[in-house]
Structures are given as C-alpha cells and as structure tokens.
Amino acid sequence: MSKIFVTKPNIPSYEEYAEEIKNIWETQYITNFGPQYQKFIKTIKDRYGYEFVDCQCNGHMSLQNMLSCIEPGEVITTPFTFISTTLAINNAGHTPVFCDIKKDDYNIDPDKIEELITDKTVAIVPVHVYGSPCDTEKIQEIADKYNLKVIYDAAHALNVKYKGKEIGTYGDGAMFSLHATKVMNSIEGGICVVKTKEMLDELISRSNFGISDARTVYDGVNSKMNEFQASMGIVNFRHLDDAIARRKELTKMYDERLKDIDGLKIFERKDDVEYNYAYYPVLIEKDGVDGGDLVSYMEQFDVYGRRYFYPASNEMPYFKGMGDTPIAHEVSQNIVCLPIYPDLKDEEVEKIAGLVIDFMTK
User: Fold this and answer.
1) What is d(CA 305, CA 6) in angstroms, rounded to the nearest whole number?
2) pLDDT tens digit string along 73-117?
3) CB 211 within 8 A of CB 220
4) How many CA atoms, within 13 angstroms, populate the side-chain half-sphere of residue 48?
5) Beta 215-216 vs 211-212: how paired, if at all?
6) pLDDT at 176
7) pLDDT value for 57
8) Helix then strand then coil, % of the chain, to nearest 5
9) Which residues, 6 or more positions from 237, have their beta carbon under 8 angstroms from its beta carbon?
10) N- or C-end of the chain: fewer Cβ atoms within 10 A?
11) Which distant-in-sequence residues (6+ apart) come within 8 Å of 20 by Cβ?
C-alpha cells in the first residue's frame, strides 16, 4: 500500500470542474462578487435555508471579519482548536480568554464560562470540535444573561444538524471552513452565516477593504472569494452527500474494530445530532504513552495520523500561560485523528485499526 495520510481533498473530475468554470471565460469575471460567487451563495441558501450568507477566501478570514464586527474586548473561547480560531480573535482586536473543555466531546465547558466573564467580555467563540455540536442552549443562556455575542467556529461542522436544526442557525453567527482538509472544499474558502442584514453588510464590506458606498468606513482587508473557488464549491456540493455517506461507513468500520480496546477512548456520538463524520479521533488513556507515540508508531508503516489539536492554543509560544485548562492540556497530549476520507479503502481501515490495536496491546 502507498502512504495513507490523515485526509485527502475531495476533487471532482477534471471535466466537471472545467464545465463549471467555462462561465468565467464567458463573463470575464474572475473575482469581486461575480456570477459564480452569487451562484454559490444561492446554492448554500437553497440547501440550508440560511438567510444572510457570505463566502470569503478562507475560513480564518471569515471568522476574523465576523469578530471584527464586534467592539473590541475579551472573548471567551476554547484552547482545544486549531490556532486559527485564537488568531482570528486576536487579529480582530480582541483578547482571548481560555475556558477549559469537557472530556466527553472536547467542546468548551459551558459550566466554566460564567466564572470567566468580566466587564470587558464582549463575546463567546465556541468551536464545534470535530463537527460535534456544543451545548448551544447553555451557551446562549449565558450570552443572553450578560448581553454577549456568540460566534461559532463551525469550521468542522458543515452539513451537521443539531436537534433537527441546521448548526449554523445557532448564535449570532457561524463560520464553516471550505479548506481542502474538510468534508467539502472550495479549494480554500469560508462560509459566513449571520443573523442580521446589518452584520452581513458590514462583514462583506470588511472583506472588500472596508468599502461601503465607494468609501472605506471600516478597518477592512481583502478576503473576497474568487470565481474559481466558488466554482469548485458549486461542483463539490453535488457530491457532498455521497462523501458523507462513505465517511459514515468508514466510521462504523473503525468503531467496530476499536470499541473494546483497553486504554483507547473512541468518540461518543449523540443521538440528537446528524454528523458529517469529518474526523475520527481516538484518545489514548494508557500510562506511559501519549498521542505522539501512536503517531510515531503508525508512521513506521506509512500511516500518518495527526494530533488535532496539539499543543493547546494557550500552550503555544504566542499565547502561553493564558489560562489554566487542565482537561484541554490532557486531551491535546493524547488525542490522535486517524485517516478518514471517501477514497480510503476498506482494507486500509483494517490496516490502520490493526496498527492502533497492536500499539495499545503491546
């Protein structure tokens, strides 16, 4: 077998993508909110029922621009996330305040949020880690009590439903990543879903140098989605349901092989969630070894898992020492995401699971 990486981008056939981008040559639009961008926005609205939607060049800038719509202050967030979440908060002019996580789903612990709120707190930025929804009800109760905004980093959660509702309907806004590593990509890209037309207008303006009515009124950037990205998104939406169905099959295969291994915790899925099966994390709970040891062991056999997310954000040099989050520390040390993507073969899953079992039982 060849090398097996943790993920592999879903790429449509050359012919299907080439057919979709023909329109770019006909319109001569390459960027700046062109026809393909508008078509992609409509595709998202039609599929999910969202009212106020924008697409930008990547998920990071999408989240940063959403947060820039909020007056600067302290923002309570999780340290168990890709560093992009923390940098988006920081780069939008806020101060990240780290709240510990729950060990059952690795999401922010709402029972620990309230003690971190000060008169400087302006927002909460939870992350739907691995596409598993946060406790949105408790988070919203706290936000309402203290008049805080809630912006979800839903980078992993495209196509997820929670209690029968699209995940992007929770909070004041949500960002979905369309990076190559996600369940669906637009080469790179981000989807912004917000609650109000006012926020949408500001968000779009901030992505276009802060321009409104031909004048710069915000501290803007250039983060517009171009026509080639939008076209890739349009095409890949046609294949998303099949991709998720295959991911679900692979997940069941892993579950069956790994569910009874001592010292190994597989992910606990909830009955009221429709998942997208974006990741397959396992947590090492065996004395004397950690996630890095499992990663190194598998690499000897050309299997490349990843420690998503290691180290925790508040243990990165730039943010080191900001908050005491022992559960996030423990999980970040011991978590490993195993390879999962639609092209992964059944026999490759058997190989990977076998390596994990060998490691855990030796």
Assistant:
1) 5
2) 999 999 999 999 999 999 999 999 999 999 999 999 999 999 999
3) yes
4) 25
5) antiparallel
6) 98
7) 98
8) 40, 20, 40
9) 43, 47, 184
10) C
11) 36, 231, 234, 235
335 near 285, Cβ under 8 Å?
Answer: no
For residues 10 and 7, give the distance between their C-alpha atoms in angstroms, rounded to a whole number. Answer: 9
Contact 285, 266 (CB under 8 A): no
Measure the CA–CA gap between 155 and 157, rounded to whole angstroms.
6
Which is nearest to 257 in space by CA: 361, 131, 106?
361
Helix ranges, 213-303 (H): 227-237, 240-258, 291-299
232: pLDDT strictly greater than 80 = yes
Query: CA–CA separation, 137 vs 149, rounded Å?
Result: 14
Locate 30 and state its tokens: 């390459």
Environment class of 107 (CB within 10 Å of its CB; exposed 0-12, middle 13-18, buried 19+) = buried
| pLDDT at res. 362 | 84
Strand 190-194 and strand 173-177: the pairing is antiparallel
Parallel, antiparallel or unpaired: strands 303-304 and 4-5: parallel
pLDDT above 70 (res 1):
no
Which position has the token pair 């004395």?
287
CA distances from 80 to 2, 75, 128, 275 (A): 31, 15, 10, 20
The predicted model scores a pTM of 0.97
Which alpha helices (DSSP H) does the chain contain, by range? 14-27, 35-48, 59-68, 83-91, 136-146, 197-206, 227-237, 240-258, 291-299, 326-334, 346-361
SS3 for 177?
strand
Q: Token pair for residue 192?
A: 């912004």
